[in-house]
Known about the structure:
Elements: H1 2-12, E1 16-18, H2 29-39, H3 43-61, E2 67-68, H4 73-76, H5 79-95, E3 99-106, H6 110-120, E4 123-126, E5 129-132, E6 138-141, H7 147-160, E7 163-169, H8 176-179, E8 182-183, E9 186-187, H9 188-200, E10 212-216, H10 221-230, E11 236-238, E12 262-266, H11 268-271, H12 277-280, H13 288-310
Amino acid sequence: MIDKLMAKIKKLEAPIVVGLDPMLSYVPEYLKSRALEEFGETLEGAAEAIWQFNKAIVDACYDLIPAVKPQIAMYEQFGIPGMAAFKKTVDYCKSKDLVVIGDVKRGDIGSTSAAYAAGHLGKVLIGSKSCSGFDEDFVTVNPYLGTDGVKPFVDVCKEENKGIFLLVKTSNPSSGEFQDQMVNGKPLYELVGEKAAEWGEEVIGDCGYSAVGAVVGATYPEVGKALRRIMKKQLILVPGYGAQGGKAEDLVHYFHEDGLGAIVNSSRGIIAAYKNAAYSEKFSEENFADASRQAVLDMKEDILGALAHSGH
């Protein structure tokens, strides 16, 4: 799967991923009203609204992007109907040949970690049949519990040709409370980066990148530069661009000299673009998906421009 993702990034010249993180407040009023009319002011109504919202954005953008990243919490908040909408979104994106990165941030040990890995990336044996659960292509994993928490995911990645992104340095303001603490003369995030590189050696694709990638936030560019040197074979998933303050020119060091090696996420900057003053004049609420497409094109131009300017 890492080979497929890298091939799509190259073919589309788009090192970007759209975060499908739908809040009900992002859904245009007309779409929300239609869903609530049909299902009532219920969890089912909310789930239908976010599914229709997702579908319209995917239809408008799938030819421009290599991947999407649905954040599971935005679906879990609507209970079982929300989780059904998550699965429907995953399946629909895969039908459009998009790589799906499930942003699930799982992290546990032993049989529990193996169950998470099976449920999201692998299969479960039911009688004589193997069945897939959510069946994403990649998931995000919290490595805080060490090898016991990560190895079950790596094993499933080998079996199923899937991948993971380990949280190495996150984009949130308080990430440094733990991640920046010095351990044996190094910040903790560097030790996690070294471990990510070590775990990743087990699953190197033909493209030269590992199926074990890393999450490094856009809001800490100097950290990104240091981690790029440590994790040479890791594809870096970069959250925090745009709405969280990360700028394209700050991200060039997350990439290798050939312009590959990172994939930058934008969530509300794309899916709620129609609410942004930069797009609201040109695109009405009914054309929200067209606004999202334009936001993808603008993001691509911004990142490729910064890479070209830097000599990457």
